[in-house]
Design a protein that fits this description.
By secondary structure, the chain is of the alpha/beta class. It is about 70% helix and about 10% strand.
Length: about 375
C-alpha cells in the first residue's frame, strides 16, 4: 500500500505491506499515478514487511523520477538489509532508457561479412595446425608404439566399429536393393537388364559403399567424439591432464583417430558386401538373374581396382572425421550450450569434407584413367 501526505516540508510517501515481485501489479497503478514535482519527497518505509529486487526497483525508479524534476529524496524507517538492497538497485538503474537499435547499413553488412571471413580464415589455420599436431603425434606413435594407450584404443574400436556394424550393414543392404530396383526399371527399357550387375558393383565398390559409411561414422562417432571431449573441456579435465604432464592429443585424440583408421575400412568392406548381397537378391527377385549368374557377371565385369579405389579413400576419410571432431571439441568454451553447438558443427563439417574429398578423389582417378 502507498499513501501520500502533504505538509510544509514537502510530500511524505508511506509505503507498507509486501513489496515483492509477484504482488507488484496491485500497487503498480498507484505508483504510476504519483507525479513527482519539485517538492521534497520523504519515503517512509517503516511499514514494509518484505522487500525484493522488484519492489526495490519500483521505489528506486520513483526516486529517480523525483530527482529528475529537482526534488530532494530521503528515506526513513529502512532496515539495514532493505537499505543495502535499495542502494544496490538504485546504483544499477540506467540513467537513460535504452534506445532502439539503428537499422544496419550496407557498410555494417560488409563489415559483418568481413569479420566472419576473417574468423573462418583463423579457424582454418587453427584446424590445419591441429591436423599437423595430430599427424606428428600419430607418426611418433608409429615409431614408438608403446606410447599408444591400448585400452583406450580397444574401447574406441568397439564404439566406432563393432557397435556400428548393424546400421552400416543395413544401410549397405538397402542401398543395394535401391540400386538394383531403380537400375532395373531404367535398363528394362533398352533390354539391358543384365548390366544391372555392373551398375551395382561399380557404384557400390568405387563410391557409394565407403562414402555412405563415412557419412554414417561422421554423424555417429564424430559427434560422440566432440561431445565427450567437449564435456571434458567444460569440466576442466583437459587442463588437469596438462597439469599432470599428460598430452591431451596423445591421450584423447590419437586412440580415436587410430580406431577410425582401423575400423572405417572394415565397415566399408561390410557395407560393400551387404550392398552386393542386397543388389543380388533384388536382381534375382525382379530380373530373374540367378545368384550364380550375378557372381559370374560380377567377376567378369568388375575389376579389383574398383574395390581398391574405395578402400584407398577410407584412411583419408577416417583422418578427416577424427581431426575435425576432436578439433571442434577443443574449441568448446565453458558451457553445455557450446558443447551442443560444436557437436553440430563437427557433424556438418565432417560430412561436407568427406563429400568434397570424395569428389577430389573422383577427379584424380578420372585424370589417371583408373
Amino acid at each position: 500500500m502507498i499513501h501520500s501526505d502533504h505538509d510544509a516540508d514537502g510530500v511524505c510517501l508511506r509505503i507498507s505491506g509486501e513489496m515483492l515481485t509477484q504482488s507488484l501489479d496491485s500497487v503498480e497503478q498507484a505508483f504510476s499515478a504519483i507525479k513527482p514535482q519539485g517538492d521534497n519527497i520523504t519515503f517512509d518505509l517503516s511499514g514494509i514487511e518484505a522487500l525484493d529486487t522488484g519492489g526495490a526497483w519500483m521505489i528506486a525508479d520513483m526516486a529517480r523520477r523525483a530527482r529528475a524534476v529537482g526534488a530532494q529524496v530521503t528515506y526513513e524507517g529502512l532496515s539495514p538489509a532493505h537499505s543495502a538492497l535499495l542502494n544496490t538497485v538504485a546504483q544499477n538503474i540506467p540513467d537513460e532508457p535504452g534506445t532502439a537499435t539503428e537499422q544496419r547499413s550496407f557498410v555494417d553488412w560488409v563489415a559483418k561479412v568481413g569479420a566472419r571471413t576473417v574468423g573462418a580464415w583463423k579457424d582454418t589455420l587453427s584446424m590445419l595446425g591441429f591436423l599437423g599436431l595430430t599427424l606428428h603425434r600419430l607418426a611418433r606413435t608409429i615409431v614408438m608404439p608403446w606410447r599408444l594407450r591400448k585400452a583406450a584404443l580397444v574401447s574406441q574400436m568397439e564404439e566406432v566399429g563393432f557397435k556400428a556394424i548393424p546400421i552400416v550393414a543395413l544401410m549397405g543392404f538397402l542401398i543395394g536393393v535401391v540400386l538394383a530396383f531403380q537400375g532395373a526399371t531404367q535398363l528394362k527399357q533398352f533390354g539391358a537388364e543384365i548390366f544391372v550387375v555392373e551398375l551395382i558393383s561399380i557404384s557400390v565398390l568405387r563410391e557409394l559403399g565407403i562414402l555412405l559409411t563415412a557419412i554414417i561414422v561422421a554423424g555417429r562417432s564424430g559427434s560422440a567424439f566432440t561431445a565427450s571431449i567437449g564435456s571434458m573441456k567444460v569440466q576442466e579435465e583437459i587442463d588437469a591432464m596438462r597439469t599432470l604432464g599428460l598430452d591431451p592429443t596423445e591421450v584423447l585424440v590419437i586412440p580415436r583417430v587410430v580406431a577410425l583408421l582401423i575400423m572405417l575400412p572394415i565397415l566399408g568392406f561390410i557395407a560393400d558386401m551387404a550392398a552386393l548381397f542386397g543388389g543380388g537378391l533384388m536382381s534375382w527377385i525382379d530380373l530373374d538373374i540367378s545368384p550364380g549368374m550375378f557372381v559370374t557377371r560380377l567377376k567378369e565385369g568388375t575389376g579389383i581396382w574398383h574395390f581398391v579405389i574405395g578402400m584407398i579413400k577410407a584412411p583419408f576419410f577416417a583422418v578427416v572425421i577424427g581431426v575435425i571432431a576432436c578439433w571442434q571439441a577443443m574449441q568448446v568454451k565453458g558451457s553445455a550450450q557450446s558443447v551442443g553447438q560444436r557437436t553440430t558443427a563437427s557433424v556438418v563439417q565432417s560430412i561436407f569434407m568427406v563429400i568434397a574429398l570424395d569428389a577430389l578423389f573422383s577427379i584424380f582417378f578420372s585424370v589417371l584413367d583408373i
